[in-house]
Amino acid sequence: MKQIALIVHEDATLSTVTGAMDMFIHTNRFFQHTGNPLPFELVLAGEKPINDVLPGGAQVKYRQFSTISKPDLIIVPAFYGDRDEMLKKHQDTISRIKLLYQGGAEVASLCSGIYFLAQAGLLPGRSCTAHWNDMEDIKRRYPDVNFLSDMVITDQEGIYTSGGAFSSLNLILYLIDKFCGKEVGVWASKMFSLDMDRVSQSHFAVFKGQRQHHDDDILKAQTYIEQNHHLPINMDEIAGHTNMSKRNFIRRFKKATQNTPFEYLQRVKIEAAKKALEKGSQNINLLMYDAGYNDIKTFREVFKKLTGLTPQDYRRKYSRTAVMLN
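Below the sequence we write its predicted structure tokens.
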């Protein structure tokens, strides 16, 4: 039986806590009904001596996290609030996570729970994921971390991380499958209506323009790209718009946005195409031209690279017209 310490505190996003609880509880019940030993001992691990955050029910114990000495797995939920404030407020929990990991416990983060792992110093040189919206902030705070924004799950050296919001439940499914075997994993996938093969969250990402910097010339270039992405603009033209040499422009652009100007232009074009598909555009070729592409093969390749889906599949998933018809 694996002891799982599911951290809970007043700032936790409770949906990530209760979702994980339900999946582990129902998996235990499955084993109980088949006459097999229970695979999990689930403990709500709180920061206070008394649980005043979330009732766990008869099947889930509550213990102060500081009293738990040898958990097999620690799960860190997502949280609400200012990142700096939360990391300072929960520093004792973060330090304990590091201590227990060094003592042999495995650690998993759900969505923004990754900040606790990163602050504990557990992620340098390791691959990880979280909500795609946290990518820029995490890369800025923890530059040694290999953040994979398109992944739903990572598993490396006893550290597990998950994508954003409810996609974090795919990590719980993965853990059930890993610890209990494929047959139980398939059962859990059906029971909780979760896709076992879902590995990418890139099609959920909304490109926001990467404007969290203070380089006015580059902001000017970004605006120019966004307003003219449908035209045959090139790097010389964009660099000239900012009165910079091409070489200096590319260097400063990459430093400010973490993308080359060409990569940024591609992202802007694909974002325009996504919005058109969401509105129900039926003509892929016309949409492609409106986004600034002339070759259908190139357009499809770039679209799939950035979203994880073909244009046709993206339209089926997110078109308002398709939703209304279904």
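Residues 99 and 105 are 9 Å apart (CA to CA).
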